[in-house]
Design a protein that fits this description.
mainly alpha, 3 helices
């Protein structure tokens, strides 16, 4: 392999991972299921999007949502973790 291909691969991987890494720092859900489990991955992507929209709503409403938005975000994070566990179980149970 030539060095240009390696550098290009590293840059592309970093560009794809950056948005998810910043969400992980916020304690929010991340997309960490591979394309092998397309439906689970799509569900995870929707959870990440929903979590971000709830965060936006919190900002727009100056965090005056009675704690319900924070609870919703916690449940979305839990759902994200459960999907990861489902993908792991599917991987273990493959023939």
């Amino acid at each position: 392999m030539n060095i240009k291909a390696i550098i290009t691969g590293i840059v592309l991987a970093a560009a794809v991972a950056l948005p998810f890494a910043t969400m992980a720092q916020d304690g929010g859900p991340v997309v960490d299921i591979g394309y092998r489990h397309g439906n689970l991955r799509n569900a995870q992507q929707n959870i990440v999007q929903a979590w971000q929209l709830v965060s936006d709503a919190q900002i727009d409403n100056d965090d005056r949502l009675g704690g319900h938005a924070a609870r919703a975000k916690a449940l979305l994070t839990q759902a994200d973790e459960e999907l990861r566990l489902a993908a792991d179980a599917a991987n273990r149970n493959r023939w």
